[in-house]
Backbone:
């Protein structure tokens, strides 16, 4: 699998994981000048902007470690652009992450959901 294929597969697994936990997927790969949000979901009246990080090789640490402060700022800017673009008056939103570690040899995946990775909006 190429790096792009691993990433796409990780996003599919993350979406399925969230759907089984009551999230409704509204949008995939929302792109603005600020950046991209992998998944926009809704659950219980709250919008969730989800960054998905996928790894298939453990050499680079945990997937969520790649969400550094600059990426968090871009996620927040992109989330705000989404709210404006959609004309949403929803003030209840948060930015979450889903980490997917895929073992290609065993055909297994470990998925970890981290809620509200930005404490301030």
Residues:
């Amino acid at each position: 699998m190429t790096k792009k294929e691993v990433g796409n597969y990780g996003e599919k697994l993350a979406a399925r994981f969230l759907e089984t936990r009551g999230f409704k997927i509204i949008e995939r790969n929302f792109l603005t000048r600020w950046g991209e949000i992998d998944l926009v979901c809704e659950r219980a009246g709250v919008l969730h902007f989800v960054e998905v990080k996928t790894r298939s090789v453990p050499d680079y640490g945990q997937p969520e470690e790649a969400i550094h402060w600059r990426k968090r700022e871009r996620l927040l800017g992109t989330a705000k652009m989404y709210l404006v673009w959609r004309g949403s008056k929803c003030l209840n939103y948060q930015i979450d992450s889903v980490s997917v570690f895929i073992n290609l040899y065993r055909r297994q995946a470990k998925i970890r959901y981290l809620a509200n990775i930005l404490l301030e909006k």
The first strand starts at residue 24 and ends at 31. The chain has a mean pLDDT of 87. The chain is about 30% helix and 35% strand. Residues 69-86 form the longest helix (18 residues).
